[in-house]
């Protein structure tokens, strides 16, 4: 037994050390926090660790993801982390997956097999997915995040404490489309234009809907109409990506013709600086890669054009093998395009120019990560997990780290579930149905006949059916790819909480479920002081039965959690 495990036996007792040694743990993410977590889990003697991460190792990771070194660049993070971590304790069984945790193969049944889950994720969508799977399978989740000097470890015990989605998180920053496309006033506007509009139209999938606010009003109707015309013209230009004069046509259109079109709208420039169409100097793509490597200085107009031309050539050649290309801050081809195009755009509108390095920070939503904060938060997460395994439920704490002269650490007992939460505040059950089972059969034979619903809406990651939308009624579960997925049933006229059904393939059968009534406001207020046991989980692990957690108290009155989402070991606070 190692000195660490002898210390744990003294602190927690022999039974706790045995539970740690026989536990099966899932760790999602092998970045800065993930590297720290797997090291600490291995050293503490956790018996079986499953590690999931989709990414490969980049040079920029090496200063804080200490399990990786120069020879590991371009290799899968999960596989390298497994191999290096085993050197700390060869007796630990580590299973690594280079995969997306949101893949259907990581099913409810798979999540049910774990005693604990740790989150060290790089995007909010995946974080919410893991949270939902843990709540659905009654699996304890320890969610860790950092943002520079700030950090957080949230303890989530399904059915007893609030989950990740019980608190409202800031909506992603969106920009008015007219600001981005017509009247940019900050360098970030040019960067968003280059990344989410120009690059997406030419090489990639459409920009996320949340990126732009395209609300049409009487004031902007004419402007939006012109912008749609420009967008259609760019779509036509994409059809000629391989033509020899594509670059010249692109520059002429977006930096000259489109700007002249904006200038024709006189009223727009009465109280703001008018743009100046680009005067195109001589440039050559031959110098592009050399200039692109000079990422700490601001390029001239001619240099930006050279980098743009060279990046276009590289991206066009890639499209022969790839149908579309998504922007990635660590993909030099896409970053060079966005950096060059955004600086040319900024020069036209008289905005500040940025180096490629600065553009990478802005376009990739990078906040500098601090390795020490990662280590502290990871340590806190493992401590809380060991307290849970030792049966010290009353001592569990969610912890925040602040940059404060008065108090660096603040902690609170985990709050009770929010009855209004779309994850914690629903009833759940499982259902089997064959591939040819239709949405209409689900509604009529299951929801209405067996569960007593009347007018329902059914949602997955999109609306499937409601009283005013019947396009999918005759479509099958197979056609809609609904096996191994959740669907949510909502009936606004029903007094019961929403129902979430996890569908797998098999003969038609739905597990019996008791659906609680919606709490009224006074009950909801009481609920926050006394965790509810009425939401039926899919499985019956110790978590929901035994964790006798008290209600919400706080060692720091008025304290609120910081919403931290690790972004390749930096954090996007949006």
TrEMBL record:
<dbReference type="InterPro" id="IPR028077">
    <property type="entry name" value="UAE_UbL_dom"/>
</dbReference>
<dbReference type="GO" id="GO:0019948">
    <property type="term" value="F:SUMO activating enzyme activity"/>
</dbReference>
<dbReference type="GO" id="GO:0005737">
    <property type="term" value="C:cytoplasm"/>
</dbReference>
<keyword id="KW-0067">ATP-binding</keyword>
<feature type="binding site">
    <location>
        <begin position="29"/>
        <end position="34"/>
    </location>
    <ligand>
        <name>ATP</name>
    </ligand>
</feature>
<dbReference type="InterPro" id="IPR000594">
    <property type="entry name" value="ThiF_NAD_FAD-bd"/>
</dbReference>
<dbReference type="Pfam" id="PF10585">
    <property type="entry name" value="UBA_E1_SCCH"/>
</dbReference>
<feature type="compositionally biased region" description="Acidic residues">
    <location>
        <begin position="565"/>
        <end position="574"/>
    </location>
</feature>
<feature type="binding site">
    <location>
        <begin position="122"/>
        <end position="127"/>
    </location>
    <ligand>
        <name>ATP</name>
    </ligand>
</feature>
<feature type="binding site">
    <location>
        <position position="53"/>
    </location>
    <ligand>
        <name>ATP</name>
    </ligand>
</feature>
<feature type="binding site">
    <location>
        <position position="77"/>
    </location>
    <ligand>
        <name>ATP</name>
    </ligand>
</feature>
<keyword id="KW-0833">Ubl conjugation pathway</keyword>
<dbReference type="Pfam" id="PF00899">
    <property type="entry name" value="ThiF"/>
</dbReference>
<feature type="domain" description="THIF-type NAD/FAD binding fold">
    <location>
        <begin position="10"/>
        <end position="422"/>
    </location>
</feature>
<comment type="pathway">
    <text>Protein modification; protein sumoylation.</text>
</comment>
<dbReference type="InterPro" id="IPR019572">
    <property type="entry name" value="UBA_E1_SCCH"/>
</dbReference>
<feature type="binding site">
    <location>
        <position position="421"/>
    </location>
    <ligand>
        <name>Zn(2+)</name>
    </ligand>
</feature>
<keyword id="KW-0547">Nucleotide-binding</keyword>
<dbReference type="InterPro" id="IPR045886">
    <property type="entry name" value="ThiF/MoeB/HesA"/>
</dbReference>
<dbReference type="InterPro" id="IPR035985">
    <property type="entry name" value="Ubiquitin-activating_enz"/>
</dbReference>
<protein>
    <recommendedName>
        <fullName>Ubiquitin-activating enzyme E1-like</fullName>
    </recommendedName>
</protein>
<keyword id="KW-0862">Zinc</keyword>
<feature type="region of interest" description="Disordered">
    <location>
        <begin position="521"/>
        <end position="574"/>
    </location>
</feature>
<dbReference type="GO" id="GO:0031510">
    <property type="term" value="C:SUMO activating enzyme complex"/>
</dbReference>
<dbReference type="Pfam" id="PF14732">
    <property type="entry name" value="UAE_UbL"/>
</dbReference>
<dbReference type="InterPro" id="IPR042449">
    <property type="entry name" value="Ub-E1_IAD_1"/>
</dbReference>
<feature type="binding site">
    <location>
        <begin position="61"/>
        <end position="64"/>
    </location>
    <ligand>
        <name>ATP</name>
    </ligand>
</feature>
<feature type="domain" description="Ubiquitin/SUMO-activating enzyme ubiquitin-like">
    <location>
        <begin position="436"/>
        <end position="505"/>
    </location>
</feature>
<keyword id="KW-0479">Metal-binding</keyword>
<feature type="domain" description="Ubiquitin-activating enzyme SCCH">
    <location>
        <begin position="279"/>
        <end position="360"/>
    </location>
</feature>
<dbReference type="InterPro" id="IPR023318">
    <property type="entry name" value="Ub_act_enz_dom_a_sf"/>
</dbReference>
<feature type="active site" description="Glycyl thioester intermediate">
    <location>
        <position position="178"/>
    </location>
</feature>
<comment type="similarity">
    <text>Belongs to the ubiquitin-activating E1 family.</text>
</comment>
<dbReference type="InterPro" id="IPR030661">
    <property type="entry name" value="Uba2"/>
</dbReference>
<comment type="subunit">
    <text>Heterodimer.</text>
</comment>
<dbReference type="GO" id="GO:0016925">
    <property type="term" value="P:protein sumoylation"/>
</dbReference>
<dbReference type="GO" id="GO:0046872">
    <property type="term" value="F:metal ion binding"/>
</dbReference>
<feature type="binding site">
    <location>
        <position position="163"/>
    </location>
    <ligand>
        <name>Zn(2+)</name>
    </ligand>
</feature>
<dbReference type="GO" id="GO:0005524">
    <property type="term" value="F:ATP binding"/>
</dbReference>
<feature type="binding site">
    <location>
        <position position="166"/>
    </location>
    <ligand>
        <name>Zn(2+)</name>
    </ligand>
</feature>
């Amino acid at each position: 037994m190692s000195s660490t495990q002898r210390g744990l036996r003294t602190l927690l007792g022999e039974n706790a050390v045995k539970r740690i040694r026989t536990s099966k743990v899932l760790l999602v993410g092998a970045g800065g926090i993930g590297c720290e977590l797997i090291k600490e889990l291995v050293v503490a003697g956790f018996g079986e660790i499953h590690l999931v991460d989709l990414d490969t190792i980049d040079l920029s990771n090496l200063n804080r993801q200490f399990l990786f070194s120069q020879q590991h660049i371009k290799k899968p993070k999960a596989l390298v982390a497994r191999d290096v971590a085993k050197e700390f304790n060869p007796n630990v069984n580590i299973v690594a997956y280079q995969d997306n945790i949101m893949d259907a193969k990581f099913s409810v049944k798979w999540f049910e097999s774990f005693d604990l889950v740790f989150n060290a994720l790089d995007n909010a969508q995946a974080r919410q997915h893991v949270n939902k799977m843990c709540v659905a399978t009654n699996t304890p989740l320890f969610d860790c995040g950092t943002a520079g000097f700030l950090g957080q470890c949230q303890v989530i015990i399904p059915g007893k404490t609030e989950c990740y989605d019980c608190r409202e998180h800031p909506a992603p920053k969106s920009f008015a489309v007219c600001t981005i496309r017509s009247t940019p006033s900050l360098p970030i506007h040019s960067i968003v234009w280059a990344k989410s509009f120009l690059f997406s139209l030419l090489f990639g999938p459409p920009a996320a809907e949340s990126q732009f606010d395209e609300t049409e009003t009487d004031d902007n109707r004419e402007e939006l109409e012109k912008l749609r015309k420009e967008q259609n013209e760019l779509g036509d230009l994409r059809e000629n990506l391989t033509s020899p004069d594509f670059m010249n046509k692109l520059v002429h259109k977006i930096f000259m013709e489109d700007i002249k079109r904006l200038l024709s709208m006189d009223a727009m420039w009465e109280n703001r600086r008018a743009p100046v169409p680009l005067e195109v100097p001589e440039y050559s793509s031959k110098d592009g890669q050399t200039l692109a490597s000079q990422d700490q200085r601001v390029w001239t107009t001619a240099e930006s054009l050279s980098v743009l031309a060279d990046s276009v050539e590289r991206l066009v050649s890639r499209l022969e093998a790839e149908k579309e290309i998504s922007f990635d801050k660590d993909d030099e081809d896409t970053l060079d395009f966005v950096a060059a195009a955004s600086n040319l755009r900024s020069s036209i509108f008289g905005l500040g120019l940025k180096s490629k390095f600065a553009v990478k920070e802005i376009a990739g939503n990078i906040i500098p990560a601090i390795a020490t904060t990662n280590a502290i938060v990871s340590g806190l997460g493992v401590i809380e997990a060991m307290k849970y395994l030792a049966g010290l439920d009353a001592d569990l704490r969610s912890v925040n780290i602040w940059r404060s002269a008065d108090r660096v650490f603040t902690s609170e007992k985990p709050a009770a579930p929010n009855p209004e939460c779309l994850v914690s505040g629903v009833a759940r059950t499982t259902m089997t149905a064959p591939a040819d089972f239709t949405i209409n059969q689900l509604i009529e034979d299951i929801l209405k006949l067996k569960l007593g619903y009347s007018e329902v809406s059914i949602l997955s990651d999109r609306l499937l059916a409601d009283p005013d939308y019947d396009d999918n009624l005759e479509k099958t579960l197979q056609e809609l790819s609904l096996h191994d997925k959740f669907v949510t049933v909502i009936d606004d006229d029903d007094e019961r909480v929403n129902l979430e059904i996890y569908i797998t393939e098999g003969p038609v059968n739905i597990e019996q479920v008791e659906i609680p009534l919606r709490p009224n406001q006074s009950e909801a207020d009481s609920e926050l002081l006394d965790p509810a046991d009425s939401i039926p989980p899919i499985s019956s692990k110790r978590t929901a039965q035994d964790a006798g957690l008290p209600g919400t108290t706080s060692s720091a009155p008025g304290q609120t959690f910081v919403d931290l989402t690790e972004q390749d070991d930096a954090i996007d606070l949006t």
